[in-house]
């Protein structure tokens, strides 16, 4: 995809230039079994001016141009514009979402939003990646481990919370957490305590600020009740561990994380 986009928009055949993994994969907080990959592709500023002056919805037209470019390589895959990204779905259930973007004066990106007649929006995924990397390094990689664990929980328990909000709240939680730089032996406590932190969020709060960029991260639904349930199960699992009830401990953690938790 990157090579084809570079060929059409930059007149090069590089398969790496102007492209960056973003989203949970880019932040290195994606869980095992990842099926969605987000890619940001930087376009020349001349293309921005072309579509900013486009008659009608220039943002939609830009997404269509990016889609046509990608389809030159992946003719048989399903490819369509989805408001802000071009989505490419493959038969192996892996989905790529390509965000076309332009460098802006704030060291972030400007990207098209084709909804409601079209507009331009700003984001800064590189700042988010850097913030997660920095804090994770200061916490013995536990920030990234926590993000991955919580995605497994959210998927298994159908929790209405986005990966970006998981990372945002994990970033806040771990800053002053007492076991933030401990080893794997403390991950059961870390999971339990983060569930408690999630459960105590204000249900009336609808927006948080993303680490690094300060972008708005919106609530998808009420996750606090499921977090409270997970906290109680995690607490029981830890108690079973203290009592040397190994089978019961594993079963409680499997209630939280599903079959990915070792049997």
Sum up the structure in keywords:
Beta Polymerase, domain 2; 10 helices; two-stranded antiparallel sheet; 2 domains; alpha+beta; seven-stranded mixed β-sheet; elongated; 46% helix; 263 residues; single chain
3D structure, described in words:
- This protein is α+β, with helices and mostly antiparallel strands.
- It is built from ten helices and nine strands.
- The protein folds into two domains: 2-123, Beta Polymerase, domain 2 (2-Layer Sandwich), CATH 3.30.460.90; 127-260, no CATH class.
- 46% of the residues lie in helices and 17% in strands.
- The strands form two sheets. Strands 1, 2, 3, 4, 5, 6 and 7 form a seven-stranded mixed beta sheet that branches.
- The longest helix has 19 residues, at 224-242.
- The mean pLDDT is 94.
Terminal CA distance: 39 Å
What is the number of beta strands?
Answer: 9
User: Roughly what fraction of the amino acids lie in strands?
Assistant: 15-25%
Shape: elongated
Radius of gyration: 21 Å
Helix-and-strand structural type: alpha+beta
The tally of structural domains comes to: 2
Main pleated-sheet profile? 7 strands, mixed
- What pattern of helices and strands is seen along the backbone? HEHEHHEEEEEHHHHEEHH
């Amino acid at each position: 995809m990157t090579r084809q986009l570079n060929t059409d928009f930059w007149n090069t055949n590089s398969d790496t230039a102007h492209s960056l993994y973003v989203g949970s994969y880019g932040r290195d907080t994606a869980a095992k079994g990842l099926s969605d990959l987000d890619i940001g592709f930087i376009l020349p500023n001349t293309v921005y001016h072309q579509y900013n002056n486009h008659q009608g919805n220039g943002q939609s037209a830009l997404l269509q141009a990016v889609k046509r470019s990608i389809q030159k390589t992946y003719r048989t895959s399903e490819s369509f514009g989805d408001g802000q990204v071009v989505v490419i779905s493959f038969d192996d259930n892996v989905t790529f979402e390509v965000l076309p973007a332009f460098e802006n004066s704030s060291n972030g990106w400007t990207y098209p939003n084709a909804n409601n007649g079209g507009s331009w929006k700003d984001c800064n995924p590189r700042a988010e990646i850097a913030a997660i990397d920095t804090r994770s390094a200061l916490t013995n990689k536990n920030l990234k481990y926590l993000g991955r664990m919580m995605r497994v929980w959210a998927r298994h328990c159908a929790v209405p919370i986005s990966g970006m909000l998981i990372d945002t709240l994990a970033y806040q939680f771990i800053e002053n957490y007492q076991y933030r730089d401990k080893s794997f032996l403390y991950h059961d406590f870390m999971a339990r305590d983060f569930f408690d932190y999630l459960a105590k969020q204000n249900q009336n709060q609808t927006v948080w600020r993303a680490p690094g960029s300060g972008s708005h991260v919106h609530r998808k639904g009420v996750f606090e009740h499921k977090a409270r349930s997970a906290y109680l199960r995690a607490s029981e699992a830890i108690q079973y561990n203290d009592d040397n009830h190994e089978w019961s401990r594993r079963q409680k953690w499997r209630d939280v994380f599903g079959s990915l938790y070792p049997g």
